[in-house]
Amino acid sequence: MDKIKSLADLKKKREDLQANMSLRENSDSPDKVVQIKVAMSTCGIASGAKPVMDALIDACKDLNVKAIVSQTGCMGYCYAEPTVEVTKPGLEPMVFGYVTVEKAKDIVQKYILNNEILDGVIPQSYQSIDN
Questions:
Q1: CA pair distance 55, 108, nearest whole angstrom
Q2: How far lies 87's CA from each of 1, 57, 80, in Å?
Q3: Cβ(22)–Cβ(66) below 8 Å
Q4: Spans of all domains in the chain
Q5: Low pLDDT (below 70) residues in the chain
Q6: Rounded CA gap, 129 and 114, in Å?
Q7: Are 80 and 97 a contacting pair, CB within 8 Å?
Q8: How far is CA 82 from each of CA 27, 37, 126, rounded to the nearest angstrom?
Q9: What is the pLDDT of residue 5?
Q10: Do 48 and 97 form a contact (C-beta atoms < 8 A)?
Q11: 3-class SS of residue 71
């Protein structure tokens, strides 16, 4: 954590924290913005979900993506943690597994902004796939 040495440093820190909190909590109409949920149960946290969530928040802020980034409990994909669910307005949710910090940045840059499908998508019918 950087040391605060002046009033300007303190104001900058406050602005940064407020921007991060708005990405995590605030939205008057959540169905009109991108919703990003990071599984933060025990298995998710142990697999690195916290740095992934931080990377998603930073990427959304850096790329001016209007989104709500929040944490959720277990999504049932313990084998693929950390997992991230992205719901774009008007579309079905997309769940990504094995998300790293770099992949989190790609999710924002490539999937959210450019509609590219990335590796690691967990299909909705994952329980019905025959082996």
A1: 10
A2: 32, 15, 19
A3: no
A4: 30-123
A5: 1, 19-30, 125-131
A6: 29
A7: yes
A8: 25, 11, 17
A9: 85
A10: no
A11: strand
Buried b (16+ CB within 10 A) or exposed e, 5-28: eeeeeeeeeeeeeeebeebeeeee
Strand-strand pairing, 121-122 and 67-72: unpaired
Number of H helices, E strands in the chain: 5, 5
Residues in the chain: 131
* SS3 track for 99-110: CCHHHHHHHHHH
* pLDDT score of 128: 38
CA distance 82 to 91: 22
Fold of 30-123: Glutaredoxin (3.40.30)
CB 84 within 8 A of CB 51: no
The one-letter amino acid at 39: A
H/E element holding 39? strand 34-39
